């Protein structure tokens, strides 16, 4: 079983559509449903994690290239989520430093690059937002 996203999705669907409706009381049924929602969203996040990280890294490296800013952060030697996260986090620290410097300048090129950085940050935040899972109607109790 190596497809974590599929496993979490099936587990979540089962909890929401079959287990939660059969539990007595709002409290336990609500907890089962919430666990199901969380499992589905975790599966979605797991499935897209490496792709999201690779795109964030490429976006930040592109911003540094536009700025003519050399970055000492080495490229990850693998596509493991943990390795990509280390690279992304190091680049993010560099980006914070670059952005802070840009915000003290008043020239048009600095303002333009700062706008591009904010657009990148907004886009990556939106991509990280979980989408609401869609479930079939619960089975009758």
Account of the 3D structure:
With 141 residues, the protein is mostly helical. The protein has one domain (4-128). The protein is 72% helix and 0% strand. It has helices spanning 4-19, 26-67, 81-103, 108-128. The longest helix is centred in the first third of the chain and has 42 residues, at 26-67. The radius of gyration is 21 Å and the shape is elongated. 17% of the residues are buried.
Query: Strand count, sense and closure of the main sheet?
Result: none
Structural class: mainly alpha
How far apart, in Å, are the first and last alpha carbons? Answer: 31 Å
Assign an overall shape.
Answer: elongated
- What percent strand? under 5%
Q: Roughly how many Å is the radius of gyration?
A: 21 Å
Please, how many helices? Answer: 4
Integer count of domains: 1
Low-pLDDT ranges:
none
What is the quaternary state of this protein? single chain
Order of helices and strands: HHHH
Global mean pLDDT: 89
Kindly state the number of beta strands: 0
Helix content: over 70%
């Amino acid at each position: 079983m190596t497809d974590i996203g599929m496993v979490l999705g099936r587990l979540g669907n089962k909890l929401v559509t079959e287990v939660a409706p059969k539990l007595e009381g709002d409290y336990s049924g609500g907890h089962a449903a919430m666990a199901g929602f969380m499992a589905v969203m975790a599966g979605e996040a797991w499935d897209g994690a490496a792709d999201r990280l690779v795109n964030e890294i490429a976006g930040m490296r592109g911003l540094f290239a536009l700025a003519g800013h050399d970055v000492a952060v080495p490229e990850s030697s693998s596509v493991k989520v943990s390795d990509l996260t280390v690279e992304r986090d190091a680049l993010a620290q560099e980006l914070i430093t670059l952005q802070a410097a840009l915000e003290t300048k008043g020239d048009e090129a600095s303002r333009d690059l700062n706008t591009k950085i904010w657009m990148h940050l907004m886009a990556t935040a939106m991509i990280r937002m979980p989408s609401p899972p869609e479930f079939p109607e619960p089975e009758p109790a």
